Amino acid sequence: MALTIEQPGLLTTVQDQGRIGYYNVGIPQGGAMDQESAQAANKLVGNTAAEAVLECTYMGPSFTVDAPTTIAVTGADIPVLLNGTEQSAWTRIELAEGDAVKFGVLRGGARFYLAVRGGVDVPEVLGSRSTYAIGRLGGVDGRKLEAGDVVPVGSPVGELPSVAEIPESLRPALGGDQELRIVWGLYDHLLTDEGRRRLVEEEWKLTPVADRMGLRYEGPGVEWIQREQPFGAGQDPSNIVDAGYAVGSIQVPGGTQPIVLHRDAVSGGGYAMVGTVISADMDLLARATPGTSTRFRAVSMEEALEARRERARRIEGLWGL
Amino acid sequence: MAEIQSPLPGVFYRKPGPDKDPYVQEGERVETGQVIGMVEIMKQFTEVHSDVAGTLESFSVEDAAMVNPGDVLAVVDEG
């Protein structure tokens, strides 16, 4: 069983829950940027959370299947067209041999997920099938899909669930303004009080420079404390002596445009991280379209951990359907 | 009248490069499948094609403007 890719879309990659345990040697965790949506797609087709899905960005691929199978599309709001007829997303779709699937024009959100019963069965690399394109690791030949690719699909791993559709109440809201919760640190002490105030009280807009590595925002800029740069740090006040980067950490090169690092980001470097988007809000980031008005709201570590537990319960509820 | 929509978000350009001529000028004829501009997102440039033949009446957005999926980029008078 395989998908034959006719048009690849803009940036379609194989992703799973990520490649955990190698960040210390510079290999990012990767994995689906919107894990909650990816897991919902897997749920609908009788997969476990571990099966690999296709992550599609802004534009979808078109493909045909060489055997009957079951798919589901979740995440961003985009028309799913089966042999030219629109189907419901967040709902299980049965395909017959030779069926053709393509997508319309995006109506909301940024990334959508296509799960196939049995999961995308490319070889595991360092314990994951996720594509890390810069490192040429995982996925199909370590790259995004191209026209003509034949994407292998595994054998079913379990029964189809009784639910064929994710209820509206469990689907994420798309569009509108976003509020991203952050915890301060490790280097927010390098900002002036005014710089800190601007980050969490002013409005920022997502620029088109947003991908799996990071998302860049424009806004009023921040303000740094003037200091003599230490040996080993660059000359700009946004520079530090190299340090490890947390997933979700916010750096502001030059002090103008904050960048939030996402799952394919480098593991370290010389920009001060002034805050970190909490893990519970990383899926939300993946749903932002360019131009999205965004506010960063500082929360305590306790609030961040409670939000993480709440997200875990929500995902558990999804699997309990 | 047919509207040409952007299939994706990004920055719309009417020219293939900064020093190049626009793909097409307002009032000029376009053929089905002809490139009328491109949209840049994530360091990738995606060409935008006209689905119809006719006269490109007007562009609906400025050169180098931010566009969203479904935004009308240009209007073509079919025929």
UniProtKB/TrEMBL annotation, chain A:
It holds the Pfam family CT_A_B. The keyword ATP-binding applies. GO terms for molecular function: ATP binding; hydrolase activity. Keywords: ATP-binding, Hydrolase, Nucleotide-binding. Residues 24-314 form the Carboxyltransferase domain. InterPro entries: CT_A_B, Cyclophilin-like_dom_sf, PxpC. NCBIfam families: urea_amlyse_rel. This is Allophanate hydrolase. The lineage of its organism: Bacteria, Bacillati, Actinomycetota, Actinomycetes, Micrococcales.
TrEMBL record, chain B:
Pathway: Lipid metabolism; fatty acid biosynthesis. It comes from the Bacteria. Keywords: Biotin, Fatty acid biosynthesis, Fatty acid metabolism, Lipid biosynthesis, Lipid metabolism. Residues 1-77 form the Lipoyl-binding domain. InterPro entries: AcCoA_biotinCC, Biotin_Carboxyl_Carrier/Decarb, Biotin_lipoyl, Single_hybrid_motif. GO terms for molecular function: acetyl-CoA carboxylase activity. Gene3D superfamilies: 2.40.50.100. GO terms for cellular component: acetyl-CoA carboxylase complex. Residues 1-23 are annotated as: Disordered. It holds the Pfam family Biotin_lipoyl. One of its GO terms (biological process) is fatty acid biosynthetic process. This protein is a component of the acetyl coenzyme A carboxylase complex; first, biotin carboxylase catalyzes the carboxylation of the carrier protein and then the transcarboxylase transfers the carboxyl group to form malonyl-CoA. PANTHER family: OXALOACETATE DECARBOXYLASE ALPHA CHAIN (PTHR45266:SF3). This is Biotin carboxyl carrier protein of acetyl-CoA carboxylase. It comes from Kocuria dechangensis. The lineage of its organism: Bacteria, Bacillati, Actinomycetota, Actinomycetes, Micrococcales.
